[in-house]
Design brief:
This protein has 461 residues and is an alpha/beta fold. Strand 7, helix 9 and strand 8 form a beta-alpha-beta unit. The chain is elongated. It is built from 19 helices and twelve strands. Bound molecules: adenosine-5'-triphosphate. Belongs to the ABC transporter superfamily.
């Protein structure tokens, strides 16, 4: 981006970028795994134990667009953002900036690209040096990248930038600690703009700020993006944050992108059950519009050993029952959750017993504890399971109480089989410029799938 573009920028980025189809930044099969081991012995013992934070991401950022990357905490969004800037070296796959491979370049080799791609961080204060004045903070990157003819010129540019981000030029001699959180984030944005980048990756830029200030910073980013023709990656866990700002959205779950769509289409008609779950947590102006609330249970599983098949299947409200299941989809979901917890050794019999004895006094019989395990481990409203499934689940609970977790596991055996656990879903086009990776949207599976009860995650998702 030239200095001229900053001053004479068109009102709308799309004017500059034309129909925004030029790809500025692109990843293919991008992986970032963190090795868990410290030394040789660790590596030997923990062979294959790595945190698969980003695990095969194909993504493109188009000129002049704001691409939001959303997902729960721990899905790998920040790691993806940092790998885009080569702050993390990719484990596998490519990152290309305007067609040139930048993944894995050395610091020296990255230098020309650092002025093209900048990052705005979540915690503005932590990312600003408290001992530097705002002037120093904003002019330092200009010096590194040879921007400006003299100190005086750089100071002048810094003042212009402060004004552009909504701060008074006279603040140039102040220190970060003298500002509010919102103002600090404005300084962080001014610093990112100082080298006149083409791309900004903003990692949760408002999540550390008061709600009242969040909209102001988002508006600032939106205006800057459009005035300067920036391409923006906006990382957020809160979907309400991105609605007014993003052009497109990529939904991330456990290291993978599960759905992408233009922002309006995504909000109006999400296809992936994970997207539906995230969206149903977003407050709406008209509460009556919320007809399909989906409660997302539990937390994101460990990226060290992600679930097989579709990674979301262990929590997916729309998980597809195998052909042998004779009950309802909802009953299958409950039984499958029970089986997954037993398999994963996640049922804490002692805790259940302690809780019963604490609440009810005296000692709880094994039979009562087993019953309580069934009650508490099968989530949701009690709904009838097929008789054979109910009996196997009760038997497994009794075995758990007897301390024989392996037998409990064997008893459940192949009670709950699902294509979602067996096969990784392929990307399926779900409309213009959008796709989702879910067996529910795959016509091959869709025809035979019983719609979900009351969650809106039926045949369309
Ligand atoms: N340097 C690291 N070493 C080991 N594991 C890491 C490292 N950085 C991130 N992780 C792990 O990678 C996974 C993804 O983390 P990441 O921070 O990218 O997720 P996120 O979606 O941005 O979540 P959050 O919003 O909480 O930061 C997590 O399990 C995290 O613990």
């Amino acid at each position: 981006m030239s200095r001229e573009t900053m001053t004479d920028a068109p009102a709308d980025a799309s004017e500059k970028a034309g129909v925004a189809t030029d790809v500025v930044l692109e990843t293919e099969g991008l992986k970032k795994h963190f090795d868990q081991s410290d030394g040789f012995l660790d590596r030997l013992l923990n062979a294959g134990q790595s945190v698969k934070a980003v695990d095969g991401v194909d993504l493109e950022l188009r000129a002049g667009e704001t691409l939001a990357v959303v997902g729960e905490s721990g899905c790998g969004k920040s790691t993806l953002g940092r790998t885009l800037l080569n702050l993390h070296e990719p484990t596998e796959g490519t990152v290309r900036f305007r067609g040139e491979e930048i993944g894995g370049l050395s610091d020296r080799e990255m230098r020309p690209y650092r002025s093209e791609i900048q990052m705005v961080f979540q915690d503005p204060l932590a990312s600003l040096n408290p001992r530097q004045t705002v002037g120093d903070i904003v002019t330092a990157p200009m010096e590194v990248h040879g921007i400006g003819d003299s100190d005086a010129d750089r100071t002048e540019r810094a003042k212009e930038l402060l004004e552009r981000v909504g701060l008074k030029p006279s603040y140039i001699d102040r220190y970060p600690g003298q500002f509010s959180g919102g103002q600090q984030q404005r300084v962080g944005i001014a610093r990112a703009l100082a080298v006149e980048p083409d791309v900004i990756v903003a990692d949760e830029p408002v999540s550390a700020l008061d709600v009242s200030v969040q909209a102001q910073i988002l508006n600032l980013l939106k205006n800057l993006q459009s005035e300067l023709g920036l391409s923006l990656v906006l990382i957020a866990h809160d979907l309400s944050v991105i609605r007014q700002v993003a052009s497109r959205v990529a939904v991330m779950y456990l290291g993978k992108i599960v759905e992408t769509a233009p922002v309006r289409e995504l909000f109006e008609e999400p296809k992936h059950p994970y997207t539906k779950s995230l969206l149903s947590a977003v407050p709406r102006i008209d509460p009556s519009a919320r007809t399909d609330r989906v409660v997302l249970r539990g937390t994101v599983p460990s990226p060290i050993d992600p679930p097989s098949g579709c990674r979301f299947h262990t929590r997916c409200p729309a998980v597809i029952p195998g052909d042998d299941w004779s009950g309802s989809q909802a009953a299958f979901r409950r039984a499958f959750t029970f089986q997954t917890r037993v398999e994963g050794g996640d049922v804490d019999v002692d805790a259940v017993r302690r809780q019963m004895e604490g609440a009810e006094g005296g000692s709880a019989s094994d039979e009562a504890v087993a019953e309580r395990i069934v009650e508490t481990t099968l989530p949701g409203e009690p709904r009838s399971l097929p008789d054979d499934a109910a009996e196997r689940i009760r038997e497994a609970a009794r075995l758990l109480v007897d301390g024989d977790a392996d037998a409990a596991d064997r008893t459940l055996g192949e009670l709950c089989l699902s294509p979602c656990a067996d096969d990784e879903p392929a990307r399926v086009d779900t409309g213009d410029d959008r796709w989702a990776a879910c067996h529910r949207v795959d016509p091959e599976h869709d025809a035979s799938v019983e719609p979900m009860e009351g969650t809106g995650a039926g045949s369309s998702g």
